[in-house]
TrEMBL record:
Organism, as annotated: Sphingopyxis macrogoltabida (Sphingomonas macrogoltabidus)
BP term (GO), one: metabolite repair
Name of the top EC class for this enzyme: isomerase
Metal-binding in keyword set: yes
Domain YjeF C-terminal, first and last residues per copy: 207-450
Stated name of the protein: NAD(P)H-hydrate epimerase
Lineage: Bacteria, Pseudomonadati, Pseudomonadota, Alphaproteobacteria, Sphingomonadales
Binding positions for K(+) per the UniProt entry: N62, D119, S153
SUPFAM superfamilies xref list: Ribokinase-like, YjeF N-terminal domain-like
Length: 450
């Protein structure tokens, strides 16, 4: 599975707006369909490598893309067949079908498979789950290679509904921009390798996939404090905070202080007692504070979170510290990154609905903080509407303590100064890269070792 890095992501509504803007600027919807069909034909030609191709066409414009692709493939000499679910229901699809010179079979349980199936049935236009009969028909093609046009049929393109496509794709060709379904579970797992085909639209880039991971090098004149000083506060379970402090140092912080622990994970980390916490909060060199790892909810955590908020320092809030800070976050003028996993998010923001992207964006607006909504499909959202989607991550990160490591990486990136959203994006990228590099057998301690 793969996703193009730093690629725009558009919902169905945003895609329609982008297409309408193209029409105003002089590029007709028919031209966009020609571009889309050509991209589908090129991809199918490479995937088929001379083998027969069956194009499944639906009644809408996704089906129109399929008809255009079928005619282009036939003109190249490909052995291409078309099977239609229904008559075209749009002017564009009707015109595209009229250009197809070959026969049109009826898509049903008698349709003969081909080595390559092009799924151009619905795309992002689906408003309800597939009927059981159609789903059963599509499953008959599971032994073939599958190229999905925009999204596999049966998926909710906006990722708000957990519909699992009955025919997972080997390759999904996203037209013009990625869609939320490409980066959100459960649909993302059914998209296979995702390719992006530019078709002539100008896509808003406020929402995008994770950029390519490029470690930031220190400036030639860097010193330990210019690289960022991170203060990590340990709770009653100091092992988690020790992982956080070690991760902050490994992720690039120049100086790390671990407050409230008796043990330093690295000799270069300064360990101090709890009595020094207030003094350290007054230290102007502290660029970020991390609190929450290994710290259960209670009055002690609430007191310490209040102190951090009062200091105005940039902060990373993890685990129970997120809920502890919630009443004041939106009113506190500080840079903040929140790192909830699914359970913590649900407990802290129980009345948010929609896709994971929708909920992350709403939580960011509510808290006026950057939200890193963790999971296999991690979503990073800023209060100004920017979103980065980190799919696929590394499945080896699904083990205890890796969230504490991510909190430390966020602290390191935030301590450098600059935009908290960019810091969170860099931290998530670092975290995934470490997980992918280590692979099988990974435990959280491995992420902070050389």
């Amino acid at each position: 599975m793969s996703i193009p890095p730093d690629a725009p992501i558009l919902t169905g509504a945003a895609m329609r707006e982008a297409e309408a803007a193209c029409a105003i600027q002089g590029t007709s919807l028919s031209e966009l369909m020609d571009h889309a069909g050509a991209a589908v034909a090129d991809t199918a030609w490479r995937m088929a490598a001379g083998a027969p191709i069956l194009i499944l066409c639906g009644p809408g414009n996704n089906g129109g893309d399929g008809y255009v692709a079928a005619q282009m493939l036939a003109e190249r000499g490909a052995n291409a067949r078309v099977a239609a679910l229904a008559e075209p229901a749009t002017k564009l699809a009707t015109a595209a079908r009229a250009r197809w010179n070959g026969p049109v079979e009826t898509l049903d349980e008698q349709t003969k498979p081909a080595p390559l199936i092009v799924d151009a049935l619905f795309g992002v236009g689906l408003s309800r789950p597939l009927a059981d009969g159609l789903a059963a028909t599509l499953r008959r093609f599971a032994a073939s290679r599958i190229l999905a046009v925009d999204v596999p049929s049966g998926a909710d393109g906006d990722g708000a509904k957990d519909w699992v496509p009955p025919l997972p794709a080997d390759v999904t060709l996203a037209l013009g921009a990625l869609k939320p379904a490409h980066v959100l579970l459960p649909t993302a797992a059914a998209c296979g390798r995702v390719l992006l085909a530019p078709i002539g639209i100008s896509a808003n880039r406020a929402m995008r996939s994770l950029p390519a991971i490029r470690p930031a090098k220190p400036r030639p004149d860097a010193h330990k404090f210019s690289r960022g000083m991170v203060l990590v506060f340990a709770g009653p379970m100091p092992g988690a905070a020790e992982l956080t402090a070690a991760a902050a140092l490994r992720a690039g912080a120049g100086y790390v202080v671990l407050d409230g622990s008796e043990r330093a994970p690295f000799a270069a980390i300064i360990v101090e007692g709890e009595d020094k916490f207030g003094e350290r909060l007054d230290d102007p060199r502290v660029g970020a504070v991390v609190i929450g790892p290994g710290f259960p909810a209670g009055d002690e955590l609430l007191f310490d979170v209040e102190a951090v908020l009062d200091s105005g320092k940039p902060l990373v809030l993890d685990a129970a510290a997120i809920a502890a800070a919630l009443p004041r976050l939106s009113e506190t003028p500080c840079k903040a990154i929140l790192t909830p996993h699914e359970g913590e998010f649900a407990r802290t923001f129980p009345q948010l609905y929609g896709s994971k992207i929708d909920r992350a964006k709403a939580a960011a607006v509510r808290t006026q903080a950057v939200v890193v909504y963790k999971g296999a499909d991690t979503i990073i959202a800023a209060p100004d509407g920017r979103v980065a989607a980190a799919w696929p991550g590394s499945p080896w990160l699904a083990t205890a303590g890796t969230g504490d490591v991510l909190a430390g990486a966020c602290g390191a990136m935030l301590a450098r100064g600059g935009d908290p959203f960019d810091a969170a994006v860099a931290a998530v990228g670092w975290h995934i890269a470490r997980g992918q590099a280590i692979g099988p057998g990974l435990v959280a301690d491995d992420l902070v070792r050389a």
